[in-house]
Amino acid sequence: MAEGTRNTGGRRASKPKTVVVPEMGRMQPQARELEEAVLGALMLEKDAYSIVSEILKPECFYEKAHELIYSAIVDLAVQQHPIDMMTVTEQLRKRGDLEQVGGAYYIAQLTSKVASSAHIEYHARIIAQKYLARELITFCSQIQGKAFDETTDVDDLMQEAEGKLFEISQRNVKKDATQINPVIKDALAMLEKAANQKEGLSGLRTGFEGLDKITSGWQNSDLVIIAARPAMGKTAFVLSMAKNMAVNFNIPVALFSLEMSNVQLVNRLIVNVCEIPGEKIKSGRLEKYEWEQLDFKIRELYDAPIYIDDTPSLSVFELRTKARRLVREHDIKCIIIDYLQLMNASGMNFGSREQEVSMISRSLKGLAKELNIPIIALSQLNRGVENRQGAEGKRPQLADLRESGAIEQDADMVCFIHRPEYYKITEDERGNSLVGLAEIIIAKHRNGATGDVRLRFKSEFAKFMNIEDDMPMQEVRVGKEPLPSASSSAPEPIPIPTMNNNDFPF
After folding, report:
1. Distance between CA atoms of 415 and 433, rounded to whole angstroms?
2. Which active-site residues does the annotation give?
3. Which of 14, 63, 168, 214 lies most in the core, judged by the most C-beta atoms within 10 Å?
């Protein structure tokens, strides 16, 4: 009987445990022969470097000697020197790397192993793919090690993993040039679409007519920054705009709120639409006619295509995932972020907060292009506005954007909200009243004109509106009785228990 099946003492031998042994001896992805062929071709054909320069970086080469040789070739290209066997050898000698790569003999061998650069781009892409595969292996190994560490916070690890994976994926994002004919076709299609609209707008309507006239509506793939100092009404502005877009024009809008909860935002929308003071909405102490007004006007918000995400400390990587899903599942046409400085890029290392904000703004612009929708991000201004004197000094400027000049650089449009009344400026230079007026200052417009747009701001309702729409409120009939104005005599209030924002039933 075989040794492994012999019974001892009349008992059946126990079944051996299954042990999973990790695979050993696997080599990392590499393409040594292709690396040699590409380097040889670069030293044979004068135009070969221009073909691979956007595909390969020195670290893409697996062999250290090949990495050093390619680094020397990059140096020569930057200095606009010819690239051949002799110049590369001399450059390696200057760098002190010639002996480390195998001397002039090895350089000569590389040129003898390739006849031409006919397939150099194809070979270069394989080398780049092998490099990405090695990066993913290293990344997964590091994450696995940290996952086994009991002291590691899993949420932090997930953020780190998401950030690192995003960084690796960005290295491989390349887009080929497009011949002009199909682009002309797309441009003409947009022109015809704008011509067929009564308002002549090519983008999404905001409901603010002066703003739409200058911008032609929010344009697809644009990053729009709306900035202001605290208490200027940034959130009130985008909520008024979101209501106009979703309720008046049935445009699906997603709102990412990093500062307020979804219930707080909806409460402010109720104040905006129903025109009932916010203090009463918070306390629930409404007069009888106000309950009727609330019941009548809140119907506008039901079934409105507004989607609110109040995830705190949202990372730019989480935003990408959520935004893609919203566009896919709900056909979102516009994304609003309140506000940019509360976002983070956790999982990636930065030397300063300014560098992190720069990365966030670049990512938002990239996401707008990828999803082909406008992204509107609110932003804070620094205190420079407060320190300047005079009416003109209080007007915000591009230099006032907080934490990063990259925000201005990445944005297609930068708008400021300015309310002179906040600074006790109640009249303009002609003596006209500025009470209740707000200016939307378009300070940067990459594809159009700049200018100022005046709107009416009703602070008690946190509402922005067109000046021409600010007419005395008409009587609204609920049943047979007209709604009395707030100043008229009203019946005794219905005793309703006091509620805070989170308890509001709507």
Report:
1. 23
2. 259
3. 214
